[in-house]
Amino acid sequence: MKAKGNEEQMISDIQLQIGQMIRLPIRKMGINGEGVGYYRKQVVFVSGGIPGEYLLVKVTRVEKRHASAQIVKRLKSSSHRETPPCPVYLECGGCQTQHIQYAMQLRLKRELVDEAFSRYTDVDSLPLEETRGMERPWDYRNKAQLPLKEEKGRVKMGMYGAGSHRLVDLSGCLVQHPAINQTLEQVRKLLQETGIPIYDERTHRGSLRHVMARRAFATREIQVALISRTPTLPREKELIEGIRRLPDVASLVLNHNPRRTSLVMGEKTRLLWGKEKIEERLRSRIYALSAPSFFQLNPAQTEKLYDEVRRAAALTGAETVVDAYCGAGTIGLWLADAAARVIGMDTVPEAVADARYNARLNGIKHAEYHVGKAEELLPRWAEEGLKPDVVVVDPPRTGMDEGLLRYLTKKPVKRLVYVSCNPSTLAKDCNRLTRSGYRVERIVPFDLFPQTAHVETCTLLVHDSRN
Ligand SMILES: C[S@@+](CC[C@H](N)C(=O)[O-])C[C@H]1O[C@@H](n2cnc3c(N)ncnc32)[C@H](O)[C@@H]1O
């Protein structure tokens, strides 16, 4: 939008060649955590560059709209630079900002949100708060989902390196909870010992594709999911016997994913041993989680995020609240004691089953959950007379579907609370909403993913005609 004219101008000024050495001031952080500079108005992305630095860089790639370069020498280093503690930081694509001091990471994440709004909306004087960070921004992740590979008879488990298909061993991952690292390493050893055939993505042969481990921080229960191309595993019993004996493992499931796809999980999940769901607690709420259900990766920060959702919803006890994209019902149940009615929906049947179970578990009788797409169910329910006062949306990275945006603009709600993990789609959706009479009243960024460039936000939009 506003920046488009400038961008066209930059493109017309492309001069760079691969291999060219240039001196470049880094102006800001890009959405993937890279440093961004401008050379004769052309955008240049520099992995590992920090805003405020002055770098000698070598151009490695030239595209129509931008170029990429690598650092040759830091002519002026940032005072916010630090040595990344992780030994595989540069090989692994998981973290992008370990080389930046944490306080600066938080500032840069706020700037990402600011930049997205100024690029895609006309909102003046953005009501943007400081990023809410963690005191100890390590060991925070409750879940890892790692691909497997067999190389020269050795079972490897890890993450693909940035831009490659080489597996990086993550057994000492610093952002993962240590219990998860330990479980995964023990599962890897068991796979090695039992000789379960590992999936080969080139030939689409073999069985086991991924291993997922999720830990409930409050109860310490661990769930392990084996994701397999085949509906059963050879030597399944032997493997079950090994995994069920690992410390804190309370649930073991097999997910069947027979397709050639980059999606990790398939549609069918079968319990191999233990409980179908593990139980997490956030404050006084209990959330039972089955393997296919979404749950935020950072429980400590999730409590802060949900508190902000509650503050934004400003409930008095009389409201009908929609929890769109509800997952296991976590947000709706966080609000339920202050609402007259909660109604949620999600496309994943297991998540909706968890949400219904969780309502019962928390003694909530006035919450109901449905399987389906928010963009289809809400307009249908509106025709049948549903008039929500507050709608909470928490969509995937792609943002809200067009149908849902159309519904929210045609049938405005008093308060729309938008939880987002992608500032660009958030800002684009907010632009649609503000053009139809909503006002952005408050935006709070949360650091749910320290050491990475990801930022979560909670945005409150109000509609004047409904207030
Ligand atoms: C970011 S998660 C949020 C889950 C939940 N609100 C939470 O805080 O844990 C997004 C959820 O949206 C669901 N989903 C994706 N597309 C959807 C759609 N069109 N309608 C409803 N739910 C959808 C996914 O299954 C996932 O559970």
Automatic annotation (TrEMBL):
GO terms for molecular function: 4 iron, 4 sulfur cluster binding; rRNA (uridine-C5-)-methyltransferase activity. The keyword Transferase applies. InterPro entries: MeTrfase_TrmA_AS, MeTrfase_TrmA_CS, NA-bd_OB-fold, SAM-dependent_MTases_sf, TRAM_dom, U5_MeTrfase_fam. The active site is at C421, C421 (nucleophile). GO terms for biological process: rRNA base methylation. Residues 15-73 form the TRAM domain. Keywords: 4Fe-4S, Iron, Iron-sulfur, Metal-binding, Methyltransferase, S-adenosyl-L-methionine, Transferase. S-adenosyl-L-methionine binds at Q296, Y325, D346, D394. Pfam families: TRAM, tRNA_U5-meth_tr. The keyword 4Fe-4S applies. Belongs to the class I-like SAM-binding methyltransferase superfamily. RNA M5U methyltransferase family. This is 23S rRNA m(5)U-1939 methyltransferase. It comes from Desmospora activa DSM 45169.
